[in-house]
């Protein structure tokens, strides 16, 4: 079964097409009010560890290694992954993130991980 997953910056306006909106950052994004985020869930527990996040630093040359290390963290984080999979079982989920880089961020890596597990 293929999951219906989208990835979007939390700063973009919510849309009905987003389905369930899940913030997957450990830290709340600057400058956005909780009511404006229109979240279904803030799943901090699925975000990369602080150590991994700081090591990565959104450096594109570390992207492949970041994905590998983050996948290993996700493999050991069954409860949070199961919670997200349960939402995906109910329909479309949009993974929200705060990073400026739209290609190299944890939400993109998480979506790829979930699709590979489906």
Automatic annotation (TrEMBL):
This is DUF488 domain-containing protein. InterPro entries: YeaO-like. It comes from Mesorhizobium abyssinicae. Pfam families: DUF488-N3i.
């Amino acid at each position: 079964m293929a999951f219906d997953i989208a990835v979007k910056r939390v700063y973009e306006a919510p849309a009905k097409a987003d389905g369930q909106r899940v913030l997957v950052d450990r830290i709340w994004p600057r400058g956005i009010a909780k009511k404006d985020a229109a979240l279904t869930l803030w799943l901090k527990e699925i975000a990369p560890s602080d150590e991994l996040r700081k090591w990565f630093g959104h450096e594109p040359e570390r992207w492949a290694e970041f994905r590998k290390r983050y996948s290993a963290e996700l493999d050991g984080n069954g409860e949070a992954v199961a919670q997200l999979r349960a939402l995906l079982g109910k329909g479309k989920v949009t993974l929200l993130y705060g990073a400026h880089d739209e290609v190299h961020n944890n939400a993109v890596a998480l979506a790829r991980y979930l699709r590979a597990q489906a």
